[in-house]
Structure formats: C-alpha cells, structure tokens
Amino acid sequence: MALINRVSRLFKADFHAVLDHIEEPEQLLKQAIRDMEDDLVTTEQRVTLCAHDQDALSVRRNELEDTLTEIDEQLDLCFESEKDDLAKNLIRKKLEASRLLKGLNAKLVANEKYLAEQRTMLDENRSTLEGLRQKAELFAQRTPVPADCGSEFDDIAWMAREMTVSDDEVEVAYLREKSQRSAS
After folding, report:
1. What are phi and psi of 165, to 5 degrees?
2. So where are the chain's domains?
3. Which residues have a Cβ under 8 Å from the Cβ of 78 and sit 6 or more positions away?
4. What's the pTM value of the predicted model, to 2 decimals?
5. How far apart are the first and last CA of the chain?
6. Using one digit for the tens of pLDDT, what is the confidence trace for 95-144?
7. Residue 150 carries which DSSP code?
8. pLDDT tens sequence across 31-45
9. Contact yes or no for 43/97 (Cβ under 8 A)
10. Which of 56, 42, 53, 34 is nearest to 121 (CA)?
C-alpha cells in the first residue's frame, strides 16, 4: 500500500512539473500580480468609501448632539413656563433623538472596526504585492540555463519558498534587533 502511495505521489509530482512548464510560469506570475493589483484597487475603494461613511456618521452624530442640547434648553424654558404639554412633546423628541444617537454611535463603532480591518488588509496586500513584484523581477532577470544543467534555481516553487518570510521569522528577528539595541 505504501509503495502504491509513493508511486502515485511521484506520478502526480511529475505531472504537476509538466503542467508548470506548459503553463509558462512567468505569465502565471504576471497574471497573479495583475489580479493582486485589481484586488488592491478594490480594497482602496472600500477604504475610501468607508472613511467617507465614517465622516458622514460623525457629522450626523454632532448634529444630533446639538439637537439634544437645544431640546434640553427648550425643556428648561417649558418647565419654567409650566407648559407641560409642550414639555412632553419635547421629551418625546429627546427620547427619539437619544435612541437615534445610540444607534448612530453603534454604527460608528462598527464602521471604525471595519475600517481598521480593511486598512490592515490593505497594508498586508500591499506588502504581498511588493513581494510578488520582487519575485517577478528576479524571475525576469534569471538567465535561461541548459536543460541538462539541472540547476536547483530553475524551480520557481523553490524560489517562492526561499523568499517567503514567515511571521515567526519576523518575530525572532525583531526580538534579536530589540535585544541588541537594549544591550547597547
């Protein structure tokens, strides 16, 4: 059973290698970069729209707060003049405005969270795109070698694995840099 699994994996690996050469890896990399650029534009548009919504919500909140202050002043006047019917109508408006303000504040918080997530995703996508562009430049600069040479640098997957930096590696390097700076 293990022998059959090994043979099938070997066959799949050879088949995938043939497909990789047929599909022109350079074109695939360029297409991936174009797709990533399109995604970046879409994300930037979402961030811009969300920031605009955030501004509009803030303006509306300020208007509601001003309205509540104005209603409080009117209520003071109504109670001084003993106009209970008018005071009840103003209290109704105040309650409605307070509820609206509460909902608006909830929307502001949710929108701010979404905006922060989108900005984080945008920054991550930009760095990923930059990494892809660097890989594409390396790939474009690479000179073709004879097929019988068998250089390990021909493998694009190898290049991608070698150039990918994991979050753990970044953390370790950060800690090293931090300890070096604190020691000096």
Report:
1. -110, 125
2. 33-139+151-183
3. 84, 86, 87, 90
4. 0.55
5. 59
6. 999 999 999 999 999 999 999 999 998 998 888 888 888 887 887 777 45
7. -
8. 888 888 898 999 899
9. no
10. 42
